[in-house]
């Protein structure tokens, strides 16, 4: 891929990150009423005016809006997201501790989905109308219909509590106990993978069927190329682009969809501080986690575009 194309995409990603940060900043000031008062309010209890004034000063809400915005952006450039209002712990440190665990869960689920969804989609397309194709289509429809927290609960009931093959949930550092860490990772990763594998199966099947119907495939077969070479060289290469697009979008969606899975399996990722921050109205923590998820989504989109350009150089001309 050309350096000019890559530079344009990186600059566009940075621009979108600035837009997202601006929207998040303005969201606080679009809330009706005094944000500090809302943060301190409990059910039916009016907060003490002195406490409200102290919190406004702590959050910088007593300064002009442009000054607050400039300080907010300056803090982002330094990696400073402020401190939690609950325990006065730096937000960036909490995210740095929790984010790798969430990413590990997402990557493990994505890997399982790729191993299951893509090969089965190709096989179903090549053997269209067969028993495997019909069965897989029904199974994927069922997987898409069942919510992820239901799948997670069923996995716990069946594999953990009934058959006692896997632990029900929790977390063990990989450095301390690799085997236990992988066991605890398996069930939530499978729960994460269930919807993505179904989507990848359907997209791979549709893209492969579309590629098989093109004239260049018939020409390759007429030249005497083996079915495996036709499939790998001519079909899959052209079917990968839509699959990569769907994979990138779904991975971005998983960033915000792992909350229930982490809760069901007691996996200590970003969901725990996010839920605690929402319940405790911990504004800096909520903003920090939302910004982190948004930036990661933009980075995933950038990676998808780079993969597109590597698979099909014509994309760079767009």
Automatic annotation (TrEMBL):
**Which InterPro entries does the record associate with it?**
BPD_transp_1_N, MetI-like, MetI-like_sf
First-listed, main subcellular location of the protein, grouped into a coarse class: membrane
Q: Where in the cell is it found?
A: Cell membrane
Keywords in UniProt for this one? Cell membrane, Membrane, Transmembrane, Transmembrane helix, Transport
**One GO CC term of this entry?**
plasma membrane
Short name of any one Pfam family annotated for the protein? BPD_transp_1
> Which stretches are transmembrane?
12-31, 105-126, 138-160, 180-201, 243-265, 285-304
Task: Specify the protein's topology with respect to the membrane.
Answer: Multi-pass membrane protein
Domain ABC transmembrane type-1 residue range list: 99-308
Q: Which GO terms describe its molecular function?
A: dipeptide transmembrane transporter activity
Entry superkingdom: Bacteria
Q: Which CDD domains match?
A: TM_PBP2
Q: Which family does it belong to?
A: Belongs to the binding-protein-dependent transport system permease family.
- What PANTHER family does the record point to? DIPEPTIDE TRANSPORT SYSTEM PERMEASE PROTEIN DPPB-RELATED
Supply the name of the protein.
Answer: Glutathione ABC transporter permease
Native source species: Bosea thiooxidans
């Amino acid at each position: 891929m050309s350096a000019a194309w890559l530079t344009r995409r990186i600059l566009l990603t940075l621009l979108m990150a600035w837009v997202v940060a601006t929207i998040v900043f303005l969201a606080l000031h679009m809330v009706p009423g005094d944000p500090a008062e809302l943060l301190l309010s409990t059910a039916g209890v009016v907060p003490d005016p002195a406490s409200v004034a102290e919190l406004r000063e702590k959050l910088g809400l007593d300064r002009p809006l442009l000054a607050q915005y400039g300080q907010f952006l300056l803090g982002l450039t330094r990696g400073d997201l402020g401190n939690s209002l609950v325990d006065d712990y730096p937000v960036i440190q909490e995210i740095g501790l929790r984010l790798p665990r969430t990413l590990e869960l997402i990557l493990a689920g994505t890997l399982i989905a790729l191993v299951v969804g893509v090969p089965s989609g190709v096989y179903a397309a090549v053997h269209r109308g067969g028993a495997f194709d019909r069965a897989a289509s029904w199974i994927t429809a069922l997987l898409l219909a069942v919510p992820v927290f239901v799948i997670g609960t069923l996995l716990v009931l069946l594999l953990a509590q009934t058959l006692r093959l896997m632990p029900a949930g929790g977390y063990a550092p990989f450095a301390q106990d690799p085997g236990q860490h992988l066991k605890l990772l398996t069930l939530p990763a499978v729960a994460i993978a269930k919807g993505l594998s179904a989507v990848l199966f359907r997209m791979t099947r549709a893209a492969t069927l579309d590629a098989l119907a093109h004239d260049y495939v018939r020409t390759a077969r007429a030249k005497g190329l083996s079915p495996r070479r036709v499939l790998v060289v001519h079909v899959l290469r052209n079917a990968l682009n839509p699959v990569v697009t769907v994979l990138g979008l779904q991975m971005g969606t998983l960033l915000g969809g792992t909350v229930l899975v982490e809760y069901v399996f007691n996996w200590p990722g970003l969901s725990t501080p996010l839920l605690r921050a929402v319940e405790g109205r911990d504004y800096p923590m909520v903003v920090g986690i939302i910004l982190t998820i948004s930036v990661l989504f933009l980075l995933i989109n950038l990676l998808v575009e780079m993969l597109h350009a590597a698979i099909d150089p014509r994309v760079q001309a767009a």
